[in-house]
Automatic annotation (TrEMBL):
Gene3D superfamilies: Cobalt-precorrin-4 Transmethylase, Domain 1, Methyltransferase, Cobalt-precorrin-4 Transmethylase, Domain 2. Residues 17-227 form the Tetrapyrrole methylase domain. GO terms for biological process: cobalamin biosynthetic process; methylation; siroheme biosynthetic process. One of its GO terms (molecular function) is uroporphyrin-III C-methyltransferase activity. Coiled coil: none annotated. Belongs to the precorrin methyltransferase family. Its EC number is 2.1.1.107. It is an enzyme of class 2 (transferase). NCBIfam families: cobA_cysG_Cterm, PRK06136.1. This is uroporphyrinogen-III C-methyltransferase. PROSITE patterns: SUMT_1 (PS00839), SUMT_2 (PS00840). Transmembrane segments: none annotated.
Amino acid sequence: MVLPGLLGLPAFAPGQVWLVGAGPGDPALLTLGAAHAIASADVIVYDALVDERILALAGPHVRLEYAGKRGGRPSPKQADITLRIIALAREGLRVLRLKGGDPFVFGRGGEEGLALVEAGIPFRVIPGVTAGIGGSAYAGIPVTHRDTNHVVSFITGHDTTGGVTGSIDWAALARGSPVIVLYMGLKHLGEISSRLIAGGRDAEEPVAVISRATTPHQRVLETTLARAHDDVVAAGLEAPSIVVMGPVVRLRAALDWMGVLDGSRTPKADPLGTRGHKAAS
């Protein structure tokens, strides 16, 4: 194993808080910086979506404190979590705030960082692979492809009240973003789909719903925008899930590398049907 010193990895000093992304689940997606933080911390305050295999990397001396927030379930309040990591840092501990995905992508890392600034606590951010990118890739879906889109939008399915996000111009999003990646959207998927269709989105647009992405329990449902809600209910898919909307979903017919490796899928060449068009042009 390469020593942290040879890589120039920073020292985790007592009294610091590191806001670290653990990635979407698969320990293979953990960054070297995150692994270094786990090995160096005195206490890890971790979220519900951090895989147990990642927590197992912590040494026996490391204290683990659960601070998971799950929609619709009793959960610690964000203010209490923030106060806790500040208190631990003031005890002179190396505090690792470990989050699923990336702390700055729908992860409240910005909120916690601002609170640490106000408290005078030094901190560092180590980004992680966000589920919208890593989970899509594990489903065989690139979120950008030059034959389909030059824009991708990442949106959250609910706001701080738990309802559909009211600050989004759904009609503009429907017209302006060929690919949409929806986080935390299963609860309101029917309403979100209806708003996008009302804004001009094709009801037959391909959609993929990826449940428990990058974990051994990953499930992928391919459907359409109009049928997405009903198909998710029928399939019994549960959170955490991400939803990918747009033409890139068709690429899964060729790029579902996990399905090819386990023998459940034969890749389809030219899933977009562009080969003949390119040859003609």
